[in-house]
Amino acid sequence: MNERSLFAAHALLPTGWARDVELSWNAQGVLTEVKTDAACPAGTLQAAGPLLPGMPNLHSHAFQRAMGGLTEYRGAAQDSFWNWRSLMYRFAAAITPEQLEAIATGLYVEMLEAGYTSVCEFHYLHHDHNGRPYADDAALSMCLLLAAARAGMGLTLLPVLYQTSGFGAAPPSEGQRRFIRSTDNMLALLHKLQPLCQAQGARLGLAPHSLRAVPPGSLRDALAGLHAMDATAPVHIHIAEQTAEVDACLAWSGQRPVQWLLDHAPVDGRWCLVHATHMSAEESAHAARTGAVAGLCPSTEANLGDGIFDAGSWLAAGGRWGVGSDSHTCVNAAEELMLLEYTQRLATRQRNVLATTEQPSVATAMTLAAVAGGAQASARPVAGLAVGQQADMVALDAGHPLLRDLPTPEAMLSAHVFASHRQSALQQVWVRGRLLVQSGRHALHDSALSGGVAARQQLLKNTP
Q: Do 366 and 4 meet the contact criterion of CB atoms below 8 Å apart?
C-alpha cells in the first residue's frame, strides 16, 4: 500500500467540495499533489467518508483541562469571570512540570480525536510554585513541546509576557507569581526556544497576555525584539473579553482596548485578537481591515459569561476568524462551530448566519473560514487540502447512522456539526500524513488519558 497517498470520494478543498480526490505527500508530510476527478490507484488507502482539512485550534491553556467540572458552582451572589480566575490561580499555583506534561499529552490526544490537528498554546506558567525560575528556564515550555511530540499534535508555542495585574502598571498579585517575566527575560527565553521549536516542526511566537498585564513600553520593546528575531512570528493577545476590562481601559487611557491597541501597536496579519468580544462597530471595522484574525472560543466564552462576538460587523469588514478551545470545558472542533453559529442565531434571531454567498451550506462555510483563519493565526502551513500545505486531514464516517445515505457531503458535514454527537462521526485523523486516529481512537488514548487523570488526582490533593 502507498503510505503517502489517500483517495477520497469527496474532499473539502479550499475552493469547496470536490469529487474523487487523490492526495499525495512527501516524506515531510507536505502535500505535493491534489488531483480531482481521479481514479483510485491500486494500493491506495481510501478515506472512510468525506475528507476535511484538519482544524487548527488557535487558543489553548493546556493545564486548565484538569479543572473541567470543578468551577461549576456559585460561590458568590453574582459569579463571574473574576471569581473563576481566582480559582484558576489556585490551580495554577500547584501544578508541577510532570503534571503539566501529562495533562497536556492527554489533552492533545483528545484534541486529535476531536478533529483538531494543530494547536496554539498560550503558555503563561513559567516558574516554580514560589515564582522562582527553574534551573532550566524553559522547563515548562519543554513540557508542552514534549507533549505535542508524543501525541503527534502540530504546535505553535506562544510564551506569555505577563508583568502587571491591571492598567497603569499595577503590581502583580500573589496568584500571578508563576507568570511574571521581564521583557529581556522573555526575549532570552524566545531565543532559547527557537531552535527547539524548529527541530520539532513547531512554530514559536509571542503572547502579550493583555493590555492590563503588559505596560505600553514593555509591549513596544517585546514586539521589537520578536520582530528582530523573526519578522513573521505570530502575536496573540487577549483583548476586550470582559466589559470590566473595557471600562478599566477607558478609565486608564480614554480609549477602548481594541482602539488603543490599533493606535499604539503594529497590528497586522500576524496578530490574533483572542476573544475581541466587546468591540464597537468602529473598532471591529478598523481591526478587521488590519488583516488580524479574531480568535473565537465559543464554549469558554459561554462558560465564563463573557458575551457574544458581533460576527456581523466583523464579517462586513472582511474580518478573518478561527476557533479555539481555550479553557477546554469542551474539546471538540465541531462543537465550537456549532456554538458559534447558535450564539449568532440567538443574537440576530436568524438562521444559517455564518453561511456565505459562495458557500450557502453553513457547516461548509464555517469549516473553510475556521481552517483559513486558524492557519494564519498558527503561522504554519495548515491552511487546508492544497499543494504546499501539510497533509493534516480528518475523515468522517460515511457509515455513521446519522450520516449514512445522506445525499451530499455538505449534508454529511452538516449532520456532523449540527445533528450528531459531533465527535462520534470522526473516523480517521492524519497529521503530516501520519494516520494518528483510526476508528475514532488515538493509539495513546488509554495511556495518555489515564496519565492526565492521575496528574489531576495529584494536583487536587495539593490545591488549597
A: no
209, 236, 275, 416: the catalytic one is 275
**Which H or E run contains 16?**
strand 16-25
275: annotated active-site residue? yes
Kind of pairing between the strands at 320-323 and 393-396: unpaired
pTM score: 0.97
296-323 pLDDT tens trace: 999 999 999 999 999 999 999 999 999 9
Q: Is 356 left (phi over 0), alpha (psi -120 to 50) or beta?
A: beta
Is 326 among the residues known to form the active site? yes
CA distance 58 to 296: 8
* Per-residue exposure over 230-257, b if at least 16 CB sit within 10 Å of its own CB, e if not: beebbbbbbbbbbeebbebbeebbebbb
CA distances from 283 to 4, 238, 308, 311 (A): 46, 15, 16, 13
Catalytic-role residue among 326, 328, 397, 416: 326
Residue 60: name the closest of 107, 99, 97 by CA. 107
CA angle, residues 393, 12, 408, in degrees to nearest 5:
120
Q: Determine contact, residues 179/89, Cβ cutoff 8 Å.
A: no
